[in-house]
Design brief:
Layout (H helix, E strand, L loop, with lengths): L2 H10 L3 H28 L5 H4 L3 H24 L11 H20 L5 H6 L3 H22 L8 H20 L8 H26 L3
Helix pairs in contact: 2-7, 2-8, 4-5, 4-8, 7-8, 7-9, 8-9
Amino acid sequence: MRTDDLIRALVTDLEPEPQLADGLWSRLGLAGLCCVAVVGGVLGYRADLGAAMVNPLSALRPILALALLAAALREMLHLARPDGRLQGRLGPMRAVAGLAVAAFALALATTPVGAWAGAVRGSTLVACLVSIPVLSIVPVTILLWTLRRSASSRPGWLGAMAGLAGSSMAALAYTLHCTEDSPLFYVTWYGLAILAVTLVASRIGARTLRW
């Protein structure tokens, strides 16, 4: 039997996939509630949350995080299959990245040059870089644990998508607390925190999601 035929046979007989998705949604919902509860109980929700959601640049933070979460989950479920590949399936992620870059560029154009450094640095940089990875621990752990039942031929990439999804969920929850409304801040530091978690999860996935 050729390798391609073997992969097709494995895909055809892959019974756990629907069960994987079913278990995933309930656990992911629980992880999301946990993140929101931790933000509210430990960090506190921002006092002007309702008003901030009327500000387009501020409202873009949860939109970007939610869109990235959805795109990462889509890719993750695809990579959980033996024939899962990245080629041609990254359009949604590119769209999210493009929107983030456009928001960053718009903020640069509308912020005085002398204020760029202060807008990028903000006043909660350390809190952001610590909070998002810490909040990511539960969702990323749940995703990696659930994905042990998968049959991926790309365990490193699968782990990366789990990390990207989990850290995007954490970033989404963190927006309930964060008062930094400039894309110069949140595109930079949310992005860096998400990238760090994604890289760590990729290394973990490469070791634990092999089959």
